[in-house]
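Design a sequence for this backbone.
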């Protein structure tokens, strides 16, 4: 699975249809992880977690902070506390 990267967004599409994405607009040095989406056809494969991990990699690389307004992202940070240093 090859993910595409845009500023504040990572996604996977097939045949022109977005099947998975994480959206994290960046304002004043803070990436707000607002939305994580995985199409029903891909559920149960850990793709949402992979998307958050990739977003965290980008956030770290760009020396940003993060906040998780998406409920899935907030839960992910709870399960991966070693990344909580990113949170504002």
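Sequence:
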């Amino acid at each position: 699975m090859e993910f595409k990267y845009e500023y504040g967004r990572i996604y996977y599409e097939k045949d022109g249809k977005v099947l998975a994405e994480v959206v994290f607009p960046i304002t004043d040095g803070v990436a707000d992880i607002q939305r994580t989406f995985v199409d029903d056809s891909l559920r149960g494969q850990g793709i949402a977690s992979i998307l958050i991990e990739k977003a965290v990699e980008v956030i770290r690389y760009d020396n940003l902070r993060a906040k998780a307004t998406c409920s899935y992202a907030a839960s992910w940070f709870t399960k991966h506390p070693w990344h909580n240093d990113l949170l504002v």
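Residues 66 and 87 are 5 Å apart (CA to CA).
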